[in-house]
Amino acid sequence: MNILLVRIGRLGDIVMILPAVKEIQRLYPKATIHVVTSPDGIRLLKAFGLNPGTMVQYKNNILSRLWELYKVRRFIRRQPFDVVYCFERKKRTLSWLPAPAKIIEPSHELQHYAWRCLTLVTASPEQDYKRHYLPVNPQKIPPLHAFLSTQGIACDTILIGLHPTYSGFNKWGKGKESRHRLWPWQHFAKLALMLADYGKKNGMDIKVVMDLLPEERRLGEQIQAASQGRAVLLPTEPDFQRYLCFLQRLNVLVVANTGVMHLAAALNTPLVALFSELHPGDCGPYMPEERFNVLRAEDTANPERGLEAIAVEAVFDAVLALLMNQSINRPGQARAVDVITG
Q1: How far is CA 193 from the centre of its chain?
Q2: Helix (H, G, I), strand (E, B) or coil at 106
Q3: Percentage of the chain with pLDDT > 90?
Q4: CA 246/CA 237 separation, integer angstroms
Q5: CB–CB of 158/205 below 8 Å?
Q6: Cβ proximity of 273 and 295 under 8 Å
Q7: Where residue 171 falls among pLDDT bands split at 50, 70, 90?
Q8: In whole angstroms, what is the distance from residue 229 CA to residue 173 CA?
Q9: Other residues' Cβ atoms within 10 Å of the Cβ of residue 268
Q10: Which superfamily is assigned to 138-341 in CATH?
Q11: What residue ranges in 108-230 does DSSP mark as E strands?
Q12: What pLDDT band is residue 6 in, cutting at 50, 70 and 90?
């Protein structure tokens, strides 16, 4: 049996189809799954257990669009497909697809995109988040813990992650989008100072860290300097599997509506998610509600300022609320609630 999946997009877009992919794997365990996706999609779906040999990459580049379309259409024509799932939101993709394909229909009802993808695969899916968590490579965990120990981070350290960027950060023409995706770096620095001060006053081993790509490190260095070293930019090299283990180790991650937010949610990592313009009911963290707090610019007095309108104090309170929730602590993580309430 041959199944075709189509989803082209950034990292977060691909993460949100993972529950549907998992359901397809459960329903059709012997099927060969073929995928048309983006470079981010190939990297993530490979980590999710799909065979990269049955994937074709589509780069949304205006200079090579004709070649990319030819490549995809040739891939689709190579064999017949028994089932086709199109998780794309853009109508132009439909011209590529063999008929009849199952597609995401427009809806006026606010529903999470991941749930809509799930219901495309099965009419009455179970909302069992545990079935959809992203797996990590267990061989990467001991080296990560060894590395963290060299940075003064023990297994029982309360680890708060900051992710101050988003996919497309620093690219030309992203000014308007940046207002809705970038919480000011000065806010991140102030938050790190507040968390470090709180930990010191309460006898808690709190560390605030950033693990960023090379093109993001300059911003991380600004935050580290402005926070007087309270936010530590870890000296890491890009390694996707190691990064998944890092996200899973965090007690809380503070992040805007980005691909990293969706990755962390798929790893069941507690989140403070910052939103502006887009609605979390459509593309927020897909995980149990008690494991995340969403703060929206639209709920402030100045929503036109985007994420800048979200106060540092509100984010600080949201982090502490998650740390005090006993149900979110996992084996191998610091039990923050024991320290805060002890």
Answers
A1: 25
A2: coil
A3: 68
A4: 13
A5: yes
A6: yes
A7: low
A8: 32
A9: 19
A10: Glycogen Phosphorylase B; (3.40.50.2000)
A11: 158-163, 206-210
A12: very high
